[in-house]
Design a protein that fits this description.
heterodimer; A: about 110 residues; mainly beta; about 50% strand; globular; B: about 110 residues; four-stranded antiparallel β-sheet
């Protein structure tokens, strides 16, 4: 079992550009959540996808959007990048979206905006 | 909204010392509570969890008890090892995880 896999591992983009990050959930999981972790901080919830729909959303602007595919994999898109978007982006997968469900995290994608 | 507050680090201890990392939460209702650990160069891993009041989560010698009256979920270990050096995150979950800011633990031989 490969666990949660994310790609790419590192990425450098210029301010104003757009970026797409990818996540494959752990085998058997159908729910994918995305988090942004700034340096020295805890992860902050961006949104969650289940059955190919966005089910929950944190306090992030519309520049952050996502998609879930029929095979449960997911993409996070960020438009009009700002310097402040530089962070580690974490994907977590789970079986369902219940509060007792254990979430498994990927290694993350380190995004640097210059 | 929901929030989790945990003690700031770094926490530096000698091997075999007793560890406590404080965590309190503010939420509507009673979320499930978790401790995640991030070892150097690795992703977040679930350390332990508790889903209701008075539940005690435990794993690898670490323990935490869900205290509804004080809205706390403090992490404890009786004897830390160098291999426990990592960043520890407290989190609450109703529909999605809300994390604290993390506490870096450094254990010296």
């Amino acid at each position: 079992d490969a666990g949660v896999t994310q790609s790419p591992t590192h990425l450098i983009k210029t301010r104003g550009q757009q970026v797409t990050l990818r996540c494959s959930p752990k085998s058997g999981h159908d729910t994918v959540s995305w988090y942004q972790q700034a340096l020295g901080q805890g992860p902050q919830f961006i949104f969650q996808y289940y059955e190919e729909e966005e089910r929950q959303r944190g306090n992030f602007p519309d520049r952050f959007s996502g998609h879930q595919f029929p095979n449960y994999s997911s993409e996070l898109n960020v438009n009009a990048l700002l310097l402040g978007d530089s962070a580690l982006y974490l994907c977590a997968s789970s079986q369902g979206a219940h509060q007792n469900t254990e979430a498994f995290f990927g290694q993350g994608t380190r995004l640097t905006v210059v | 909204g929901d929030s989790v507050t945990q003690m700031e680090g770094p926490v530096t201890l000698s091997e075999e010392a007793f560890l406590t990392i404080n965590c309190t939460y503010t939420a509507t209702g009673y979320p499930s509570l978790f401790w995640y650990v991030q070892y150097p160069g690795e992703g977040l891993q679930l350390l332990l969890k508790a889903t209701k009041a008075d539940d005690k989560g435990s794993n690898k010698g670490f323990e935490a008890t869900y205290r509804k009256e004080t809205t706390s979920f403090h992490l404890e270990k009786g004897s830390v090892q160098v291999s426990d050096s990592a960043v520890y995150f407290c989190a609450g979950c109703r529909r999605a995880l809300t994390f604290g800011s993390g506490t870096r633990l450094q254990v010296q031989p």
